[in-house]
Design a protein that fits this description.
The complex is a heterodimer. By secondary structure, chain A is mainly beta. Chain A has no helices and 12 strands. Chain A is globular. By secondary structure, chain B is mostly beta strands. Chain B is built from no helices and 11 strands. Chain B has strands at residues 4-7, 10-13, 19-25, 31-37, 43-49, 56-57, 64-67, 73-78, 87-94, 102-103, 107-111. In chain B, a hairpin with a 6-residue loop joins β5 and β6 (56-57). Chain B is globular, with a radius of gyration of 13 Å. Classes of the chains: A mainly beta, B mainly beta. At the A-B interface, β5, β10 and β11 of A face β4, β5 and β9 of B.
Chain lengths: 114, 112
C-alpha cells in the first residue's frame, strides 16, 4: 500500500541554522511528491512539488527539496531558518491512478529557537 | 477570487446529531476531496470525487456520506455524529493528474 513516512515528529532548530525535514514514501509508480506547510489554526499551503525532471526543486519561502528515487526520499531543506518558519510540515504523495488523491505523512512540527 | 470555501468554520454537535459540511469551489476543479486531520496522523482521505455525479471511498469513509450533484460543490454528511468524528475537516480540489490540490481553510468539528 502507498504510504508516506516522516520520521521526525518534532524538530527544534535555532534561528539562522539550516533545516532538513525527512520524508520517505512507498509507491510503486513514479510519484508526484509535495510538501505543504500549515501554521496553527490555518489551512495547508503548498511549498513545492515534484512531478518530473530536475530532482532538485525550488519552492516558496526559500525552501527546496530533493527527490532521490534510489532512497524513496523527498527531503525538504532550507539553508537559514527564520522564526516565521515555525509550523507543521507535511509531505505527501499523489496517486495518479486514484483520482490524483494525496497520501500524507503524519507531519513534522518545527520549532524555531531565537 | 474565493478558491475553495468551506462552511461552517466551526461546529459543535451532540452525539447522534447529523450535519452537512459544504465545500464550494470556483476554480473549475474536476476532482474534489474531503480529508480529516487528527493530531499525529496527518490528513486522511474520507471520500473523493473525480467529476460531477461521481463519488468514491477514501481511506476512512465509515460514518460519512458525500454528494457531488454540481461540479462546484462537494458535500460531506454525518448522519449520526460520534465523538470519534471530532476532527478538523479539509476540502480540496484539483484539476486532475499532475496538478496541485488547493485546500480550503478547514472546519473544526467537535462532537460531545
Amino acid at each position: 500500500a502507498q504510504s508516506v513516512t516522516q520520521p521526525d515528529i518534532h524538530i527544534t532548530v535555532s534561528e539562522g541554522a539550516s533545516l532538513e525535514l525527512r520524508c520517505n514514501y512507498s509507491y510503486g509508480a513514479t510519484p508526484y511528491l509535495f510538501w505543504y506547510v500549515q501554521s496553527p489554526g490555518q489551512g495547508l499551503q503548498l511549498l513545492l512539488k515534484y512531478f518530473s525532471g530536475d530532482t532538485l526543486v525550488q519552492g516558496i519561502k526559500g525552501f527546496e527539496a530533493e527527490f532521490k528515487r534510489s532512497q524513496s526520499s523527498f527531503n525538504l531543506r532550507k539553508p537559514s531558518v527564520h522564526w516565521s518558519d515555525a509550523a507543521e510540515y507535511f509531505c505527501a504523495v499523489g496517486l495518479m491512478e486514484y483520482g490524483n488523491k494525496l497520501v500524507f505523512g503524519a507531519g513534522t512540527i518545527l520549532r524555531v529557537k531565537s | 477570487n474565493a478558491g475553495v470555501t468551506q462552511t461552517p468554520k466551526f461546529r459543535v454537535l451532540k452525539t447522534g446529531q447529523s450535519m452537512t459540511l459544504l465545500c464550494a469551489q470556483d476554480m473549475n476543479h474536476e476532482y474534489m476531496y474531503w480529508y480529516r486531520q487528527d493530531p499525529g496522523m496527518g490528513l486522511r482521505l474520507i471520500h473523493y470525487s473525480v467529476g460531477e455525479g461521481t463519488t468514491a471511498k477514501g481511506e476512512v469513509p465509515d460514518g460519512y456520506n458525500v454528494s457531488r450533484l454540481k461540479k462546484q460543490n462537494f458535500l460531506l454528511g454525518l448522519e449520526s455524529a460520534a465523538p470519534s468524528q471530532t476532527s478538523v475537516y479539509f476540502c480540496a480540489g484539483s484539476s486532475g493528474t499532475g496538478t496541485t490540490c488547493t485546500f480550503g481553510s478547514g472546519t473544526r468539528l467537535t462532537v460531545v
